[in-house]
Amino acid sequence: MDKSYIISQTETFVKEQLGHDTTGHDWWHSDRVRNTASAIAEIEKADAFICTMAALLHDVADEKLNPSKEAGLQKVHTWLTSHLTDQEQISHIMMIIETMSYSGGGGEPMSTVEGQIVQDADRLDAIGAIGIARVFAFSGAKDRPIYDPGLPPRDESLKEEYRNYSKGTAINHFYEKLLKLKTLMNTTYGRQLAEERHEFMLTFLDQFFKEWNQGDK
Ligand code: ADP
Ligand code: NI
């Protein structure tokens, strides 16, 4: 089995499947997740092929891009069985993608280091400068506002209070999810990478509220 051939075939398949999605699941998201997963896999001495395949394919099964979650997973399974012969590899990759697709709903924790790595890499792409870009791209694609305080903001210390008045806005998503991702990292290197990205989001939010509140004038 020529691993690099299978990877390049998979790249083509993922590009076709995700194409020009503008809700944060474009080809370049999968490519970044694959690169980050490879970097973590090297340090963790994990199976790089499993990490690469799972990272490339993880969003092909997304229910937002398929009639159902099951149909999406079936599509990935069909692809894998027609390109790999090792059943263990197939079920390992499927397990990672399945667990990731349910993880939003409090699913099972990842049981293998390869799964933990791909999950970390996906979460890392949701934070930092790229994470910020993706939140606003997603919100725009869903016709959601940047921010709406609901009440006239008074001072910086009321940030916690603001979010109660900004459900469904891009800024609210930081408090709802993105600022929590750092604590969910599985691997040591993933946690280390999350640190700088997390700090960058805090700096961004500070500046955002400062400008919003005329604090820079
Ligand atoms: P993935 O499966 O790659 O982790 P998601 O489907 O959870 O991604 O989200 C794709 C992108 O859209 C992420 O960057 C995420 O932060 C952003 N996103 C998801 N839900 C929201 C939301 N309610 N408001 C703003 N951005 C969101
Ligand atoms: Ni993803």
UniProtKB/TrEMBL annotation:
UniProt keyword Transferase present: no
All copies of domain HD/PDEase, residue ranges: 22-136
Source organism per UniProt: Paenibacillus wynnii
Entry keyword set: Hydrolase
Highest taxon of the lineage: Bacteria
Signal peptide: none
InterPro entries in alphabetical order: HD/PDEase_dom, HD_domain
Molecular function per GO: hydrolase activity
The name this protein goes by in its record: Phosphohydrolase
